[in-house]
Design a protein that fits this description.
Number of helices: 3
Number of strands: 33
Distance between the termini: 44 Å
Keywords: Signal
Protein name: DUF4179 domain-containing protein
Strand content: over 45%
Signal peptide: 1-33
Structural class: mainly beta
Helix content: under 10%
Length: 446
């Protein structure tokens, strides 16, 4: 049976932003998944050839098509390449034996994707990560989206997508700071990935390429699930993507972890196109739930736009504490039914805590809509109120993880902490749990 594993590195101090798209807590629940997209033949009449000739950009196909186990198919970049909507550039900078070259961009006023190469004698052993994009001193990146790179004949071919911060006027000239790391599975994030050098490049692109087809939509519509209110506070549509932000009411009695089976339907002249969020582009930030929906047909000026959700994952705000006695291997208090705790030695200095709980395997059958797994806050409090932090696993594999097996009705969360005489019991915070509340809702945005 396949094991669904929540990333150990991302669990560590994951912060306030967590991915909303299926697959990870808001998506840290399972493997990466390509977006599901349904559109009529009429809606995609101008992109029937899925293997269109990309010309000079053909060398990037392996990086964006999602054919290897470490990548996700980027439908927006592929659609833009299929239809010739990539702005060709040739801006480069060299240093420390490497040359960073931005070969093209795909952008609208809300997003930016770089198509780049990295060359040099040792380029095949390197990777770019943790990009910074600025206009003067102003940081332009709101969040990181999809990114991937491959090595072909000693050259790194990659792309990196970003959600841009709101701006009164789109920026044409910007600087890209590109740290070069030793190439690992996750350059710049893996413990053994070393910073080799940092390259900085000025880029000039056309920010108005899709401007005449972009529009900001009316806001204020409310989605109510199980008495919990979320209000549309931002909605924007471009030929590349649609953006929707919902904000939870402060008066809500429940903490909403995720909206389930979110989707967006665009319609024009009686033809409908439905899409779901791409992994890595939709996320939660505090009380805001921010979605990006791909417009794979590059449909412009839709007549109708409808946001949909099947329900939410949530717990009461008074149910977000998990109290355990680690000396007695006993759960003292929890809103999670049937949860059990065991503590064992991971090394002479570190203890391993495992929490097991029940899951419904049917909730994990759709690879595009993997329900969350139990996720815990990074810190915990002892009975005196003193705060402590988790520690890494003795083998250096991370701070902890959550998992379940395909077809199994059991899930588990694992964390590590330094051994000590902690006043019992210990209190841990719950950041996500698959408590599904079904209530299908539609919001008409246009």
């Amino acid at each position: 049976m396949r094991k669904r594993l929540q990333s150990t590195k991302r669990l560590a101090k994951v912060g306030t932003a967590a991915v909303l798209a299926s697959g990870m807590l808001f998506a840290l629940s399972g493997p990466l998944a390509a977006p599901t997209h349904a559109a009529s033949a009429e809606a995609v009449s101008d992109k029937n050839a899925s293997a269109a000739d990309w010309g000079a950009f053909e060398v990037f196909r392996e990086a964006v098509d999602g054919n290897d186990v470490f990548s996700v198919k980027d439908s927006i970049v592929i659609a833009a390449l299929d239809q010739g909507y990539v702005e060709a550039l040739d801006d480069s900078v060299s240093g420390a034996g490497y040359t960073f070259n931005v070969k093209g961009v795909v952008r609208d006023s809300q997003s930016l994707t770089l198509l780049y190469t990295l060359t040099g004698e040792k380029a095949s052993e390197a990777g770019l990560s943790r990009f910074s994009i600025k206009n003067g001193d102003r940081d332009l990146i709101d969040s990181q989206g999809l990114a991937h790179s491959v090595v072909v004949d000693g050259t790194v071919y990659g792309y990196a997508s970003f959600r841009l911060k709101a701006s009164d006027s789109p920026v044409g000239t910007f600087s890209v700071t590109a740290p070069v790391y030793s190439r690992t599975l996750n350059p710049g994030y893996d413990p053994d990935s070393k910073l080799l050098t940092t390259l900085k490049l000025d880029v000039q692109s056309d920010p108005t390429r899709f401007a005449r087809h972009e529009s900001r939509l009316a806001t204020g519509q409310t989605l109510t699930v199980d008495g919990q209110r979320l209000t549309v506070t931002e909605a924007y549509v471009t030929p590349l993507r649609s953006y929707v932000k919902l904000t939870a009411d402060e008066s809500n009695s429940k903490e909403i972890f995720r909206l389930t089976r979110a989707g967006l339907t665009l319609s024009k002249n009686g033809v409908e196109q439905t899409s779901r969020p791409q992994l890595g582009t939709s996320y939660r930030d505090g009380s805001d739930y921010i979605f990006q929906f791909p417009n794979e047909s590059l449909l412009t000026d839709p007549d109708g736009i409808v946001f949909h959700a099947d329900g939410i994952e949530a717990l009461g705000k008074d149910e977000l504490k998990l109290v355990v006695d680690t000396k007695k291997n006993k759960v003292i208090s929890s809103a999670i039914p049937g949860i059990e705790v065991t503590v064992e030695d991971a090394s002479k200095d570190v203890s391993k805590l495992t929490l097991k709980y029940r899951v419904d395997p049917k909730n994990y059958e759709d690879p595009q809509e993997l329900t969350s797994l139990l996720s815990l806050s990074f810190g915990f409090a002892d009975a005196s109120g003193k705060q402590h932090e988790q520690t890494q696993a003795p083998d250096g594999s991370g701070y902890g993880h959550s998992y379940s097996y395909g077809g199994s009705d059991e899930g588990a969360a694992v964390l590590y902490f330094k051994k000590g005489d902690y006043p019992q019991p210990l209190t841990l915070g719950i950041e996500a749990y698959p408590n599904l509340i079904g209530d299908s809702q539609d919001i008409v945005l246009k």
